[in-house]
Amino acid sequence: xxxxxxxxxxxxxxxxxxxxxxxxxxxxxxxxxxxxxxxxxxxxxxxxxxxxxxxxxxxxxxxxxxxxxxxxxxxxxxxxxxxxxxxxxxxxxxxxxxxxxxxxxxxxxxxxxxxxxxxxxxxxxxxxxxxxxxxxxxxxxxxxxxxxxxxxxxxxxxxxxxxxxxxxxxxxxxxxxxxxxxxxxxxxxxxxxxxxxxxxxxxxxxxxxxxxxxxxxxxxxxxxxxxxxxxxxxxxxxxxxxxxxxxxxxxxxxxxxxxxxxxxxxxxxxxxxxxxxxxxxxxxxxxxxxxxxxxxxxxxxxxxxxxxxxxxxxxxxxxxxxxxxxxxxxxxxxxxxxxxxxxxxxxxxxxxxxxxxxxxxxxxxxxxxxxxxxxxxxxx
Length: 380
Description:
Blueprint: H1 11-19, H2 35-47, H3 54-60, H4 74-84, H5 89-100, H6 114-159, H7 182-200, H8 207-214, H9 223-236, H10 250-272, H11 281-288, H12 306-355
């Protein structure tokens, strides 16, 4: 006997079909709001009325604007961008009118060229405005860097008033060989104090973190730092059999070296304090000079000024692109004006032929050149 090709539905399919509503069933009625919920919603609606002023409404109506590629006119889209970026549209109009004023030199008989020239001048004005926008962008970078210096000055003044310190900036050559700051000095002094405490309590489990941060354990070190690292290795038993065993004087000598180093950096910090809460003129000049951003290494992505360098490089590339576009557009405008002059000259020749009753295809014999002066006549 042959089996039927249709299989009977399983129990789960039957349950799912029985649970799904039929098309004839209506959706459940919405739950009614309580008077308290209704009052709360009305109060919230009064707070979100949107912009009320004309300026706010002009900005909010462009919330959905993304790029303006599909705007009705290129000039209108550019003006929308100016208003969206909160730039001065009147200043752009003055720049545009200065460039469009050169259209008055074209003759009325060349109306076919005037729209092309007007469009080219319109695009030239937009290129100039975008170039000024990039210059303003670089000025904003400078102002942001100067404001960051003012904030740094406030931070330094607050940092110098307390003995607490935050996580220091990592330096591959160790904190003692890195750039100096109040937080760095306090971190060095604090780490050395904790190392002294570990020696006093004979606890050598977590010494590697502090020693690795303070000293240059991965390269050449002064003899004092090398002795400190060697004694910690001896006392912790990490290199047992490869280093001499510690004696009774080793902890005392290690503590003495750590105390001397701590006192040394404490004196340096006290001498450093008066100079720290000051922003030098060299630092301000470096903030104004955006060329200093080029000093960052390509692989140093964690450099604090790395985002500013990317923004500065993008602005430089955009300026170079706009300068080339302005040069091409100027060549186009000069070509259009040269074509207009040629058409004017051609129209003038045709008018002269018509006035002299010369057929269009007849060649006009040029007039003979003026005779050369004879003898000494005309010589200087």
